[in-house]
Write a structure and sequence with these properties.
mainly alpha, Neurolysin, domain 3, Collagenase (Catalytic Domain), five-stranded mixed sheet, two-stranded antiparallel ribbon, about 55% helix, Neurolysin/TOP_N, protease, metalloendopeptidase activity
Length: about 725
């Protein structure tokens, strides 16, 4: 998943999809505020401009938790003073003195959010979570003061409705519309009690989102399953070593830790022969936020839904999803659900086939069981071996983390003309020794593009999953800015002195998140607001990049055995290709169940919702197979309840998959395949570099010559296709 950039112009704050957490209360027009900010800047590193090489870099080595609160206080004061100056400008509103001025404002808080985001996602602690709790409502107040600044909105509206608009560039016209629309859709047109209530709702939601996220993280940290040597049967050697190291880190020398993260849970469920332990690990993972203790999220979900519903009622919408999807590619929740329902029947039908195959294997082995959710991965792996003679652990021996990184660099060089070189150790500050940094340049001209930070390994205090973000995005309106991009993962680190081996799914995720980084690095836009994403489009580019993992050029050069150095055999690649759509029922169904539930939660009156029973009842109503659960159960569904980034928008992965499958066919039909120069040029020009400076639907048509076709997705997943291409 992509994490929103921390670049916070006034417009970006208003339109932000909850990618950032919260911040402190300040006065917007206090004459002392600028002086206070200046005093703090002198000795608070979080507020200072980036210094050093590469156009300046964050001083991660000087971060101190005690600086967070005063930095946020000062940064908010400074930004609100800048906003008031724009709003009260006596000159007539123009693009330059209103829109560009807003783009320019907020540099201090942008810097603070860079560091704040690191603590939130990569270095969380009980002390930081307490700061988050205090800052959440204050940050919400700060955003509301910008969003509900009537004078500011009137100036934005004046520019949007002016004759000047027609004289602006396409990008300038689009960001003016994005900013105007962002304000109008977020309460700027409300008055009196409605305006005050809107701000109060946002304030409470900010606190609830933070608490939801921290509750999930608490369960991930608190619930670790420790096993002993006699319980290791079936587990790969690499996993055993990593589990031993994880236990040692937690003071459990001689034991083996199965941490409560997907990267640890998934391989354990795939290989462990101990069914009782599989059930325990499965239950622990899928019960996050649902344990009836102080970290239980059920009541939070209910309250979040109630507040979101009340808020959109103030704006005149029927339900939250209707409001949320109005400016997305899907446009309406009906369109989003229609896409889901076109694929859902085929997905659950495939699950039925997969379960039948697994039950047959279990029966053949004499295992007196009926397939349960904690059995799915284990017996699916046996089916994979039986049907395709494909052993996931055998494949893993050829998937070295470092080699895959080099493969990604190769693809970036071929498609984007980028060159990656490691920066000298110590020349760029990092927030953890595991973080490495590369310099990115244009291969031909040598022009500096920016830096790429990589934080690949799981550790305590780091949220689960994988994500990408930027510490600075490319813009040119105030001089060209170099990009500071970052990829973050939760791979289980290999033993000391040995390479880290990952699964095929993890390798795809590695490429996926790198796709987000390339989206950042390839940008050619002028203004910060052009980086605001359209949620059901923004995953498309990264999903598409996964396709290059299986290209011959990558396979032949970079998928080599970690011991012998021998390339992966053609016979094994053939097995991988033959099994490409294997277990697609499981993968599609667990994802779609979450996406459908997201839409149902946000199109149903919250008064009728009890989260625990609603999840069960609705999944039963759509025919959810009992052998599978949602990929993200309600109480741990951070995409939609720890913020509003994906709320009513989790379907967007599927929407983007349609684009991905269709775009992939463009490469497959080209003479040069996935490295065809003409198609690659269009890819970079229209699908990566342009960001949100052009309507996504128009951008895709410029790349493909037409709209995407859902049948491409059905073909891609091996599902029945009713119509021809």
């Amino acid at each position: 998943m992509i994490k929103l950039t921390h670049t916070l112009t006034a417009a970006a704050i208003v339109m932000a999809l909850a990618g950032c957490s919260q911040a402190p209360e300040t006065q917007s027009t206090n004459s002392a505020a600028p002086a206070q900010a200046e005093t703090t800047v002198a000795d608070n590193v979080l507020l200072q401009d980036y210094k050093g090489p590469y156009g300046g870099v964050p001083a991660f080595d000087k971060m101190d938790l005690s600086d967070v609160m005063p930095a946020m206080e000062a940064a908010m004061a400074e930004h609100l003073a800048e906003i008031d100056a724009i709003a009260n400008n006596p000159e007539a509103p123009t693009f330059e003195n209103t829109i560009v001025a807003m783009e320019r404002a907020g540099s201090a808080i942008s810097n603070v959010y860079t560091y704040y985001g690191i603590w939130s996602s990569n270095k969380s602690s009980p002390e930081f979570r307490e700061i988050q709790r205090e800052l959440s409502p204050k940050l919400s107040d700060y955003r509301s003061k910008i969003n509900q600044n009537e004078k500011l909105f009137n100036r934005i509206k004046a520019v949007y409705e002016s004759d000047e608009l027609a004289t602006l560039t396409d990008e300038e016209q689009r960001i003016t519309w994005l900013i105007y629309n962002g304000f109008a859709r977020n309460g700027a047109t409300l008055e009196g009690e409605a305006k005050a209530r809107y701000a109060a709702i946002n304030k409470e939601l900010a606190s609830l989102h933070t608490k939801f996220s921290n509750n999930v993280l608490a369960d991930e940290e608190n619930y670790v399953t420790y096993i002993t040597e006699d319980q290791l049967d079936g587990l790969p050697e690499s996993f055993v070593k990593a589990a031993a190291a994880a236990a040692t880190e937690r003071g459990k020398e001689g034991q083996y830790a199965i941490t409560n993260t997907r990267s640890s849970m998934d391989p354990f469920l795939t290989y462990s022969t101990h069914r009782d332990l599989r059930e325990k690990v499965w239950t622990t993972y899928y019960s996050r936020g649902d344990n009836g203790d102080e970290f239980d999220n059920n009541a939070l979900v209910k309250r979040i839904l109630e507040l979101r519903h009340e808020r959109i009622k103030l704006l005149g919408y029927e339900n939250y999803a209707q409001w949320r999807l109005e400016d997305r590619m899907a446009k309406t929740p009906e369109n989003a659900m229609d896409l889901m329902m076109k694929v859902w029947p085929a997905a659950i039908a495939r699950v039925e086939e997969e379960v039948a195959d697994m039950q047959a294997i279990a029966d053949e082995l004499g295992d007196d069981i009926t397939i349960k959710p904690w059995d799915y991965r284990y017996y699916a792996e046996k089916v994979r071996k039986a049907k395709y003679d494909l052993d996931s652990n055998e494949v893993k021996q050829y998937l070295q983390l470092d080699k895959l990184r080099e493969a990604m660099f190769y693809v970036a060089g071929r498609l984007f003309n980028f060159d990656f070189k490691p920066v000298p150790e110590g020349s760029v500050p990092v927030f953890h020794p595991d973080v490495k940094v590369w310099e990115v340049t244009d291969k031909d001209s040598g022009k500096l593009i920016g830096l790429w930070y990589l934080d690949p390994f799981a550790r305590k205090g780091k949220r689960s999953g994988a994500w990408a973000t930027t510490y600075r995005s490319h813009t040119t309106y105030d001089g060209a800015k170099t990009v500071l991009s970052s990829n973050n993962s939760n791979f289980v680190k290999g033993p000391e002195g040995e390479p880290t081996l990952i699964s095929w799914d993890d390798a795809e995720t590695y490429f996926h998140e790198f796709g987000h980084a390339l989206h950042f690095l390839s940008a050619t836009v002028k203004y910060p607001t052009s980086h605001s994403g359209v949620r059901d489009y923004t995953e498309f580019q990264s999903q598409l990049l996964e396709r290059w993992l299986t290209t011959d050029e990558v396979v032949d050069q970079y998928l080599v055995h970690y011991k012998t150095g021998e390339p992966i055999p053609d016979s094994l690649i053939e097995k991988i290709n033959n099994a490409a759509t294997f277990n697609e029922g499981f993968k599609t169904t667990e994802y779609m169940a979450s996406a459908i539930m997201d839409l149902l939660y946000h199109t149903t009156d919250p008064a009728k919702i009890d989260p625990d029973s609603f999840e069960r009842e609705q999944l039963k109503a759509i025919g959810m197979p009992e052998e599978i659960v949602m990929r993200h159960r309600t109480t741990q569904f951070g995409h939609i309840f720890s913020g509003e980034g994906y709320s009513s928008g989790y379907y967007g992965y599927m929407w983007a998959e349609v684009l991905t499958a269709d775009a992939a066919e463009a490469f497959e039909e080209a003479p040069g395949g996935y490295y065809d120069e003409e198609v690659s040029d269009r890819l970079v020009k229209y699908l990566f570099s342009i960001r949100n400076a052009m309507d996504p639907a128009e951008a895709y048509r410029k790349f493909r010559g037409r709209d995407a076709n859902v049948e491409a997705l059905m073909r891609d997943r091996g599902f029945p296709v009713k119509s021809d291409k």
